[in-house]
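Lab meeting, action items carried over

1. Structure of the three-component assembly. Owner: GW. Status: complete.
Input record:
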Amino acid sequence: MLGALASQILQVAVALALAPLLVGWVDQCRAWLSNRRAPSILLPYRTIHKLFVKDAVVADNASPLFRLAPYVVFGAMACAAAIVPSLGTALPFGTAADTIALVGLFALARVFIALAAMDIGTAFGTLGARREMFIGFLAEPALLMVLFTASLISGSTSLPTIVDTLAHGPLGIYPSLAFAGVAFTMVSLAENARVPIDNPATHLELTMIHEAMLLEYSARHLALLEWASALKLFNYSCIGLALFVPFGVASGANALAILGAAPVLIAKLAVGGALLALIETLSAKLRIFRAPEFLATAFLLAVLAMLVKLLLGA
Amino acid sequence: MTGALPGVVAAIVGWLAIGVLCILKPHDLRVVRVLFPAGAVIAVALAGIGLAALAAAPQSMVLPLGLPDLPFHLRLDPLAAFFLLLLGSASTCISLFSSGYFRNEEGAAPGLLGLQYHVFLAAMALVLVADDAYVFMIAWETMALASYFLVTTDHRKPAIRSAGYLYLLIAHVGAIAILLCFGVLQGGRGDYTFDAMRGVTLGGIAPSLAFFLALAGFGAKAGLLPLHMWLPEAHPAAPSPVSALMSGVMLKTAIYGMLRVTFDLMHVQLWWWGVAALALGLLTALFGVIFAAVQTDMKRLLAYSSIENIGIIVAAFGLAIVFQANDKPLLAGIALTAALYHSLNHAFFKSLLFLATGSVLHATNERSLGRLGGLIHRMPWVAWLALVGTLAIAGLPPLNGFVSEWLLLQAFLFTPSLPQSFVNMLVPLAAAALVLAVALAAYVMVKFYGVVFLGRPREPALVHAHDAGGLERAALLLLALGCVLLGLIPTNVIGAIDHVNAQLLGTSVRAAGESTWWLLAPVALERSSYSPPIVLVVIVGVVLATMIVVHRVWHGRVRRAPAWDCGFPLQTPRMQDTAEGFGQPIRQVFEPFFHIERHLPSPSDTTPVYFMRASDRLWTWLYVPIARTVEVLARVVGLLQQGRIGVYLGYSFVTLIALLLFVG
Amino acid sequence: MSIGTQLINLFAAVLLLLAFAMLAQRRVVSLIDLFAGQGLVLALSTAVVAYTTSQPHLYQSVALTVILKVFLLPWILHRLARKLDVRWEFEGLVNTPTTMLIGIVLVVFAFNLALPISEIASTINRSTLGIAIASVMLSFLMMIVRRKAIPQVIGFLSMENGLFFAATSATYGMPMVVELGIALDVLVGMLILGVFFFQIREQFDSLDLKHLEQLRDEQLARRAPPGLEDLAKPDRELPPETTR
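Predicted assembly:
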């Protein structure tokens, strides 16, 4: 029990520490791929630190909800990191909150950030909130269906148990996971404000989704939100890695196994981040009204994954 | 607990007495202020009786009322007790709120409202304990009439009168279907007590006929597609506490009726009934939530959201039938638990939100979302308590809406073992539709809350808005606490619901799983588990820890400045998203669902006007043709009407002759 | 399940995935690549069947599939697309999500259809029959919802792929003669259709099959001049959504 708790705390700490690094790595790859000089991989850390040091400027008519939201969003993402197995599957919190609760936590963060964006009452803020909820109403079910497919395979909705089954169970080929994988890739692009749907590096307000909601935030609030979105990317990457390339994830609270899992995780994240940058470089941003088509495709693919699981039995 | 059923009767009588007392001095507000809390006390007692009677054995009694040879049969069993608990707990808060809410300007005298309100409550309680078709129909009709008068409180407005008419019409279509259903259920014996119906074994198509009559009849009251049309008209028309009561409690009596007929009065359940109910429920849920997304009136929005929630409950009910018919009692138990749990949850959060709109309405005299905004600064109590309801109805952990949806999804996930391969394949599609509806509900609720309470006031008059009074705050606070509590102790709630499972399905969900008071694990620990207290503690803990660390390590300095908005200087509150604007993406994606009338200004207009209305296609596709047919038929029948006395006497004479011929 | 069955299941699923990808894909060039991918998966699955059931004659059909469907036909199609200068198809008759929803319903239907057949079949992989039928139906659906001629032809060709997959999975492949005959048929059909493309384009200056409606009835065609309703349709994103 004590070992499990230690593994739990270690994994959350790893997530908190590595998340900005992953963002830095993806940005670096993106820069290389588009023939630019890359910024330092440590840039996100410096940005977050700089923001924490600054004085917070809050709009005159902001309600307490506006100031509370960054903490709730960050807290939800940190809790989500406590469910997603990155190094090992010894996660006691995974018993308290299963995959459905995981999606619920993501939804909680989304609702709070959207409400906060509406709080100031600016045109861009409400526009961002509306678009975020719009993306969410299709992305969230799609994510849930992907996770359900994995649940059906392993007969459990607890994410650590699912990953245990996939990583350490008898080796099997699950065709349904092929569908789920495609759907999951599409969803994570949309959920993490990545290129076909949103552009994290944009400065054009009219095309923003995620950034438009953060326009009124500054200093420590902004730092928390940036950190939270880095955590979200990290969580999604770990979910994807755990479901579709589950090899190398430690089982149980074995200190050696967890230590051994660390280099594997970093290698997988590096490859995953590079692939993400590649996808982003190769695709063009969709018009906002193409987004539902993209996400509906992801959603229906995820539904198909469940169907294929039921039909083929694998 | 031998006194439970007499206690319920006493409560019903008490409510009626309060109603009568109210009408004695109809215009005296003090009477209302005192008598409504008295009604709330009775409601508390009723909730207590319901809770106690859940675990007790069923008890019945016969009251020598009504027609000779047709006494009132009453019965209190776990199913009735559960819904009494729902009625009592929700109406406690609503009555408390009403005592501070009703004024002289509602359109009808407060005392009259008090009479109608308490008769409405008493009728609902009587519906739940009725044990023969006769009492049931009397109570059902009293309930419909009392609520009709409450809906048409502001009867000077033609729109409200026509809303009331539509409600009464559909309520009666439903009542006829229910009556016919009881007619089928008594199986030709002529004994209309429920006990007799339980003893009848129906054969042939009779059970299916009874089930679908019940689904149609109770569905009309619940707002199932396509008989939902009255709901978005009647709920906004009524005063807010009445909307809360109708949406939170009255719709659930329809769910009660469905459960009573399907699982208690009938012995067999066929799997395809369940598929039909499941499909209808999901269709209703999606339909309701899509329409809620484009509403611009806050109470209409909530009314459509009620349609959505009823859809979810009926879908769970359908799933329970599918499992029960396939002899999987545990899964049926989980689905039924989800249905009952969601009913209870909906009673709490929907009442909370409807009451909050009542406070907003009183403070601003405004129902249109396009003229509200920024009320969190003016009405902090209402706003923060409504936030709890908003998060709960959006199905977010660790509040109550999440638990029932979690249970229902679990029931879906464990399906793939049914003999009908067709149903097996339908399940992922159904789960997808459910999840989509739930995710859309979050969209709708962000729109509702963000437009009403956040942002800047869209009208200058909103600066004078004031917070709700003490009684109203207390009522809202109780409901919000209920939402939190129902979310935090799911195992205890399921333990209570389990008595209903035991009665209707002969199974126990609580015993089968590995749940403890803090951990919900309906089947087995390694299959699925959820622990709301831990989730709450961890989230709150992480949030607080983050706050402390950020403030300690760095600092907590804050400066206030005008909103930045990318340096755009000339912004006005009108530049915020309106309710229409917020719903626009959904309208665009689901355009085929709506009948859209739109007027776009041309560049040369001197007084440009934008006008958009999205209405229901079913109205023109279904209701108008039926109305036309009825009119044509009426005209045919009208040929009999000659207007001369002699002709009418002739009809009577011919009838007499015919009767004498055939009977003699 | 043996590893062979698992692999065939995987290929079946990928085939279905590709069929859906083809439904959703708008670019003609990518569509041709997807078609080539489908051919490759088909060849691989046939090879697995050949190996697990040790039927060497199936290897010949693997070779045939690879040559014909992975190289020759895609090459011809690419050339056609380049020559005819069709790279994009803008809007199908039905939007993508609706098409996919219909596709899912078809999958459910196909599996229910295949259930009684696969129960009597005794081959190693019964459940793949449903997928085979489903991909035939999906290709058919693609032919229905597409406007341009080339995607329709690709739909036709991938329908043949589905049939071929059904044959290998349900009966371990057809006799060589039949297979050769079908392959030749497809090739000849392809060539004839290619000639048709040029004819259609010469006649109408476009490969949009909408124009073929003109051939139906002179009067009707005059009443609804092609293309005009597209002009009248307002851009979906433009209307300003402001009140007053």
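2. GW to write a short summary for the group page. Key points so far: The mean pLDDT of chain C is 73. The first helix of chain C runs from residue 3 to 24.
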